[in-house]
Amino acid sequence: MKLKISFPDERVKSPILSEIILKTGILVSIVSSHVDSTGGEIIIEVIDKNYETIKTEFESRGVSVKLLNTLICRNKEECVDCGACISVCPSKVFSFAEDWSLETDTQKCVRCGLCIDMCPHQALSIEGTDCE
Amino acid sequence: MAKTIAEINEKIASGNVCVITAEEMSDLVDNIGAEKAAEEVDVVTTGTFGAMCSSGVFLNFGHSETPIKITKMFMNDVEAYSGIAAVDSYLGATQISEKLGIKYGGAHVIEDLICGKEVEVVAHSYGTDCYPRKELTTTITLADLNQAIMVNPRNVYQRYDAATNGSKKIIHTYMGKLLPDYKNVTYSGAGILSPLSNDPTYRTIGAGTKIFMGGAEGTIVGEGTQCSTASGYATLMTAANLKEMTKEYVNAASFEGYGTSLFLGIGIPIPILDAEMAKATAVRDADIEISIKDYSIGKRDRPTVRKANYEELRSGSIQLNGKEVTTSCMSSFKKSRQVAEELKSRILAGKFLLGVNTTTLPLNQSTKPMKETNKTPRVQDIMSKKVVTVEATDSFIGAAKLMKQNERNHVSVVSEGKLVGIITSWDISKAVADGKIDTVETCMTKDVITCSPDETVDVVAKRLAEFKISAIPVIDEKQNVVGMLTSEHISRLFTRGKHE
To answer: Is B157 found in the same domain as B20?
Structure first.
């Protein structure tokens, strides 16, 4: 599962992730990371059974953890099932079903955002609320 | 036995007609042959749903009190051409918003009108004795207009070339986002369901043919603009009543870095007059070939990377320069199918009769390029044609000597005759300062940005600025170095005059 870890501005420089990995021995994949003046944000992937442990460790250090259920959001009202998104996605989230409907395997998403401005109908978003 | 369109219409009226889609027809002809299929089937329905940029609507607003002869008009900040009488306008799909830019355009206004939304209209005029008013602001919906007739100069391309990108950076086109180094291919068109590909000799498709258009019943006006029957890239001019259209078949689109367009569903019924028509409508994806073009070359005639047919493109990936590359469709096959099915059910229900094409498309017609009287110079006109190269394995002292001899700051680096890098006087200065005396290979730039000799200078100048470089090796199709273009060559254009 993928988690969004948000560091407050003053904690960005602390090696919190490394500390937790060394302490717990849990393997973590970093999907993406972003730092700006308001703080830092990383998306990590861990196996399901380690979720609670990781969450507790981060939260005890003043870092918030959010489980990402919706990694990429598709608005079915706007989507016309063209498949423009398919070829720009590096992790094969999108594919065609037998009847040429667009299918999404959102758990594969690494939130790179390449599909978002590829979509001619603005049907894809990372923070959307009108998901299928 | 041959049938006429009138006979088929009688069958439709009596509810005795056999209609199948172009996909179903391909299987039927394979199974029972064209002769028997022609006896069984009366109409084959086709369908396509994709970006049709050359689309727009004629609108009539009715007269205001006091009357105005509109010379300039904006609908939700999108300009609609108003140089047609007093209160008629033409709103084009690709015209973009003055305020929002490419996020919102004529296509979006059209979609908003279809959805019954209110649209703000601002109009200007110079005022005349018969039309005294100079300014007008109002809000309208589609129902308030006298007429809203979609008339599209160029729709339903018979087939369309696919796109890829051979450059080093992402490019944004009307064929979508193209990844660097040929990492993806995008294509458009319905292939097996494509209307004109199912009647490639244009026997039954021409002015007067009735069509399904955006949910409405429309007609073909005649040949479309840029209609090239000689090369099998025919187009159609189409018309239908916007008031009868639905969002299901009309969708506004915005392509990142390009602009707006209108996705439109169009279906054409093809009367199966005889075995020849049955055979034509049995066409499959594999029979329709297009070229995959390199869109990174900013020229009218983009180089073809390879040929491909719709079956290969639709398979999801294609071989390109020895690599498996993912394909994306920019038009919707699912929606194309929906169009063909909807048209089929309307004919079966007796709600849609066939039209008779009174004029056929002009055969053997091709498209001319634009006549330009003030030509932009090309790279080959101003580049240094003397080719100076070093081998990657040479010492960089050799490269420095070569630069001195030829009074150059940039030298192309080759290996086995092919370009592998570029070395500049700056690279050498850096290496000397760092005390590194080594081969050219160790201090050259490996990811070289290149151009071709027949590209126009303005396009290449943009590339120099974009990559912050001062020189660019010129290479031919076989990757042989044929020259070098520097920023000095470009600046000389201005001091010597363009025509020198």
So the answer is: yes
The alpha-carbon gap from B78 to the nearest alpha carbon of chain A, in Å, equals 19
Range of the domain at A53: 2-67
Nearest to B330 among A82, A96, A117 (CB): A82
pTM: 0.84
Give the separation between CA A103 and CA B393, rounded to whole angstroms.
Answer: 51
CA distance B333 to B341: 12
Inter-residue contact B325 to B318 (CB < 8 Å):
yes
Residue ranges of alpha helices (H) inside B434-483 are 440-443, 457-466
Q: Do A117 and B256 touch (CB under 8 A)?
A: yes
Q: Is A9 found in the same domain as A47?
A: yes
| pLDDT, tens digit, 9 for 90 and up, residues A76-89 | 999 999 999 999 99
Mean pLDDT, residues B81-97 taken together: 98
Q: In this complex, which of A81, A87, A121 lies closest to B328 when CB atoms are compared?
A: A87
Q: What is the pLDDT of residues B40-57, one digit of tens each?
A: 999 999 999 999 999 999
What are the tens digits of pLDDT across the range A7-64? 888 877 888 999 999 999 999 998 888 888 888 889 899 998 999 999 999 999 889 9
Torsion-angle region of residue B468: left (phi > 0), alpha (psi -120 to 50) or beta? left
Q: How far apart are CA B262 and CA B277, in angstroms?
A: 31
Point out the catalytic residue in the list B130, B329, B443, B451: B130
Residue A117 contacts B, CB cutoff 8 Å: yes
Cα dist from B413 to B98, B440, B452, whole Å: 48, 8, 17
Q: Kindly state whether residues B199 and B106 are assigned to the same domain.
A: no
- What distances in angstroms separate CA B70 from CA B57, B79, B117, B119, B149, one per listed residue? 17, 12, 23, 17, 19
